[in-house]
């Protein structure tokens, strides 16, 4: 999924206690130390870039700033109305970090370009650490076999979705699904083939849901999907689409692999535990009806 953030820089003269001399060519020692301290306050990529934008705005007159990192798929929106753009590719220790793009109404001056070079040198190490931390966090939340979000990610996201429902009175639905008689697959064709089926089933689930929905592997052959926003009608459509995709899938059909799905729609007063219990009971009833 894409992470999209916006750096707003309407106030380009915010005072951080660092007076900018006219036509300053280099950072002073005090400015360098203050910049490093500010950049080291957070290892969150978005926060780091916001801090950097505020610092850079004291030395360089730009109207927008964007950062693009192809690996982590982070995009920070820039000012599309600016006439001039200045592009910088960032790297450290032979590791590509991404690209900064400055937008401005006038070409950047020579002294501003010189200051940017210094500021980028102060940014790169912190940015590298922030990107590495983000990559580790993403890996921790991913199931290594299927590439779906894992149980830890599910616990975090179901809590976030639940909080949204409580605060904004929005709706969500929880789907619980597993493969029918998956033990037969492992016993007949071996665990390696069973893993292949799990990966393919995860792919089928992913292509059956909307971009706003999230799919998870809870463990074994058990999967969950959070639909948000959701209504009874939209939930039924998603379930029908999943069943259709499974029925029409060449690999799953060849080995007579079917699935059951249980669902629960959040209602006021519902807890996460009761929501899961309702979906789990519905999954059990779905299996009975499929026999």
Q: Structural class of the secondary elements?
A: alpha+beta
Radius of gyration: 25 Å
How far apart are the first and last residues' alpha carbons, in Å?
Answer: 37 Å
Number of domains: 2
Provide the residue-averaged pLDDT: 86
How are helices and strands ordered from N to C? EHHEEEEHHEHHEEHHEH
User: Percent helix among the residues?
Assistant: 40-55%
CATH architecture of the largest domain: 2-Layer Sandwich
Write the CATH fold name of the largest domain.
Alpha-Beta Plaits
CATH class of the largest domain: Alpha Beta
Number of strands: 9
Q: Which term fits the overall shape?
A: elongated
What would you give as the CATH superfamily of the largest domain? Reverse transcriptase/Diguanylate cyclase domain
Strand order of the largest sheet: 1-3-2-5-4
Query: Major beta sheet, specifics?
Result: 5 strands, mixed
Oligomer: single chain
How many helical elements? 9
Q: How much strand?
A: 15-25%
Low-confidence stretches: 1-21
Write the layout of secondary structure elements.
Blueprint: E1 3-6, H1 29-39, H2 45-56, E2 64-69, E3 74-77, E4 84-92, E5 95-104, H3 110-140, H4 151-168, E6 173-179, H5 182-189, H6 191-208, E7 214-219, E8 222-227, H7 232-248, H8 250-254, E9 259-265, H9 272-290
Parallel strand pairs: 1-3
Antiparallel strand pairs: 2-3, 2-5, 4-5, 6-8, 6-9, 7-8
Helix pairs in contact: 1-3, 2-3, 5-6, 6-7
Summarize the structure in words.
With 291 residues, the chain is of the alpha+beta class. The protein folds into 2 domains: 3-140, Beta-Lactamase, CATH 3.30.450; 151-290, Reverse transcriptase/Diguanylate cyclase domain (Alpha-Beta Plaits). It is 48% helix and 20% strand. The protein has helices at 29-39, 45-56, 110-140, 151-168, 182-189, 191-208, 232-248, 250-254, 272-290; strands at 3-6, 64-69, 74-77, 84-92, 95-104, 173-179, 214-219, 222-227, 259-265. Strand 7 (214-219) and strand 8 (222-227) form a beta hairpin. Helix 1 packs parallel to helix 3 (110-140), helix 5 (182-189) crosses helix 6 and helix 6 (191-208) packs across helix 7 (232-248). The longest helix has 31 residues, at 110-140. The chain is elongated and about 80 Å long. The chain starts with a strand and ends with a helix. The model is unreliable at 1-21 (pLDDT under 50).
């Amino acid at each position: 999924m894409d992470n999209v953030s916006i750096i707003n820089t309407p106030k380009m003269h915010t005072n951080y206690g660092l007076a900018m001399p006219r036509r300053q060519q280099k950072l002073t020692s005090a400015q360098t130390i203050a910049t490093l301290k500010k950049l080291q306050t957070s290892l969150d990529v978005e926060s780091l870039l916001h801090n950097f934008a505020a610092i850079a705005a004291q030395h360089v007159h730009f109207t927008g700033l964007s950062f693009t990192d192809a690996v982590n798929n982070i995009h920070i929106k820039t000012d599309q109305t600016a006439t001039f753009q200045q592009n910088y590719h960032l790297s450290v220790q032979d590791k590509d970090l991404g690209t900064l793009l400055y937008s401005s109404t006038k070409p950047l001056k020579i002294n501003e370009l010189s200051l940017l070079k210094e500021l980028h040198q102060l940014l790169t190490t912190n940015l590298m650490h922030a990107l590495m931390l983000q990559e580790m966090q993403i890996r921790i939340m991913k199931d290594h076999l299927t590439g779906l979000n894992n149980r830890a990610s599910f616990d975090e996201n179901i809590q976030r979705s639940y909080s949204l429902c409580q605060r904004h009175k929005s709706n969500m639905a929880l789907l619980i699904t597993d493969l029918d008689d998956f033990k037969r697959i492992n016993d007949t064709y071996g665990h390696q083939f069973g893993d292949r089926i799990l990966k393919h089933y995860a792919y089928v689930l992913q292509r059956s849901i909307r971009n706003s929905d999230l799919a998870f592997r809870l463990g074994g052959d058990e999967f969950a999907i959070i639909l948000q926003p959701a209504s009874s009608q939209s939930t039924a459509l998603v379930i029908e689409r999943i069943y259709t995709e499974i029925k029409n899938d060449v690999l799953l059909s060849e080995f007579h692999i079917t699935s059951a799905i249980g669902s629960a729609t959040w209602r006021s007063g519902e807890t996460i535990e009761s929501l899961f219990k309702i979906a789990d009971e519905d999954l059990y009833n779905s299996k009975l009806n499929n026999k």
